[in-house]
Amino acid sequence: MNFGFSEEQRDVQNLARQIFTDLVSPETLKASDDYAAERFDEALWGKLAEAGLLGVAIDEAYGGMGFGFMELGLLVEEVGRSIAPAPVIPALVSGALPIQKFGSDEQKQRLLPGVVSGKTLLTAALMEKFNENPASPKLTSAVAKDGGYSVSGTKLCVPFAHRAERMIVSAKTEGGVVVLLVDPKAQGVTLNEMKVTTFEPQYEVVLKDVAVAADDVLAQADEGASVMQWLAECTTAALCTHQVGVTDCAMRMTASYTAERKQFGVPIATFQAVGHRAANCFIDVECLRLNAYQAVSRLANGLSATNEVQIAKIWAGDVGHRVSYASQHLHGGMGIDRDYPLWRYCTWMRHNEMMLGSSAKNLAALGKRVAAGEAYCQ
Questions:
Q1: Pair 289, 363 in one domain
Q2: Over the stretch 60-87, which tens digit does the pLDDT of each residue have?
């Protein structure tokens, strides 16, 4: 039995890698360092649209390629490998995938063709203060009004909210959790810019009696929590595949550097301590890759993936931490030189680690599932 990727999946990955190799470089990334410019490359986004990659997981009926989450995960990995200024996770994973899976025909027809063409950007508001579980919102509530809802509350760290046509927002009601497609430009919405270490545009979104029409309701109270649980798991799995790309590139950059850097007349890669540490990085990255692929694969096939996503989160956080430290150590002072590209990768590894939560917390959550008999092989 062949457990490898299909030819079509490899084609998608290779096409993405070629585009990012051609259009993303330390010079292009430098343009948005320290918020000198917005970290969004419109030319790159247009090229991804032209190649059809923005529609890789969108049905052909809406102009997409008709593939699934596995192929989208390979695209996300290449974004991580190049740390490209392209909002693939918020726009395609957190935004478009739930509409593709749970949206009405009208919502799909209205929003998805624009996503494929690159003209429509979507995002999702998944975090609140002291609450990172969008399936159980604490600070955002909605009441029924005129066939739709009036929603109030505050969401944090919403990427590209200022560019989005719609952002997915979960809110609590008396009957459960509803999922709404909120227009960031609607009356009652305030966007407050937030500063993050990766320089990605993120916003605090304050909602005050924002009217959401009936045709912008993605899920009613009877299914909203399960929709947001699925969305959160897909976003988390995508962050893990992004971490695969980031750590893999940092590891290979370090291997290349140690093969060229000489001390006592020989490459430092020949030193046993250096070789062992680099080998540990390689093993770490491959373990992360397998666990991330497992989580994405189960989600792509409509299977329960809560355990696999939890395991991938633990690996992504720990591997990012270890590879970042090892890369800096083996580079010596060169690793923190901002004229050398490694520092950006270390920043992203740390960012992803923090976004996924502490490994201790994730291990405790997995341990509870094991103790309850919910984490066995199926």
A1: yes
A2: 999 999 999 999 999 999 999 999 999 9
Q: What is the pTM of this model?
A: 0.95
* Assigned domain for 21 exists: yes
Q: Indicate whether 296 and 190 sit together in one domain.
A: no
Q: Which H, E and C letters describe the chain, residue by residue?
A: CCCCCCHHHHHHHHHHHHHHHHHCCHHHHHCCHHHCCCCCCHHHHHHHHHCCHHHCCCCHHHCCCCCCHHHHHHHHHHHHHHCCCCCHHHHHHHHHHHHHHHCCHHHHHHHHHHHHHCCCCEEEECEECCECCCCCCCCEEEEEECCEEEEEEEEEEEECCCCCCEEEEEEEECCEEEEEEECCCCCCEEEEEECCCCCCCEEEEEEEEEEECHHHEEECCCCHHHHHHHHHHHHHHHHHHHHHHHHHHHHHHHHHHHHHCEECCEEHHHCHHHHHHHHHHHHHHHHHHHHHHHHHHHHHCCCCCHHHHHHHHHHHHHHHHHHHHHHHHHHHHHHHCCCCCHHHHHHHHHHHHHHHCCHHHHHHHHHHHHHCCCCCCC
CATH of the domain at 347: 1.20.140.10
- At 203 the pLDDT is 98
Write down which residue in 59, 88, 120 finishes a domain: 120
Pairing mode, if any, of strands 122-125 and 166-173?
parallel
Q: Which residue has the higher pLDDT, 275 or 333?
A: 275
Structural domain count, the chain: 3
Residue 308's pLDDT is 95
Domain enclosing residue 202, as ranges: 124-221
Residue 376 included in any domain: no
Q: Is residue 2 part of a domain?
A: no
Statement to judge: residues 202 and 320 lie in one domain: no
Residues 188 and 235 in one domain: no
Residues in contact with 279: Cβ distance below 8 Å, sequence separation at least 6, in sequence order: none
End position of a domain, from candidates 221, 252, 270:
221
Name the residue among 356, 354, 346, 359 with its Cα closest to residue 247: 346
Task: State whether 51 and 132 are in the same domain.
Answer: no
Q: Indicate the pairing of strand 166-173 with strand 176-182.
A: antiparallel
Clarify whether residues 360 and 252 are in a common domain: yes
Average pLDDT, the chain: 95
Instruction: Output the pLDDT for position 359.
Output: 86
